[in-house]
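Lab meeting, item 3. Inverse folding demo.
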C-alpha cells in the first residue's frame, strides 16, 4: 500500500475543504448561523479524513510489525 500517495491525495482534498471554509468565512452575505451551517460539514469531513489517514497508517504499521515478528 502506498501510504505517501494516499496521504498526498487526502492532503489535496483537505486543502480544498479548507479553501471552502475560508470562502464561507469571508462571505459577508451570510449571517453567523448560515456560516456555521456551511462550515460544519466541511470541518466534520476534514476530521473524518484525518482519522481515516491515521487509521490507514496504523494498519500499515501493525502489518509491518507482524511481518517482521
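The presenter then showed the designed sequence:
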Amino acid at each position: 500500500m502506498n501510504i505517501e500517495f494516499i496521504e498526498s491525495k487526502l492532503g489535496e482534498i483537505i486543502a480544498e475543504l479548507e479553501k471552502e471554509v475560508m470562502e464561507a468565512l469571508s462571505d459577508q452575505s451570510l449571517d453567523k448561523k448560515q456560516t456555521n451551517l456551511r462550515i460544519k460539514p466541511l470541518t466534520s469531513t476534514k476530521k473524518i479524513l484525518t482519522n481515516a489517514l491515521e487509521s490507514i497508517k496504523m494498519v500499515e504499521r501493525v502489518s509491518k510489525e507482524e511481518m517482521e515478528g
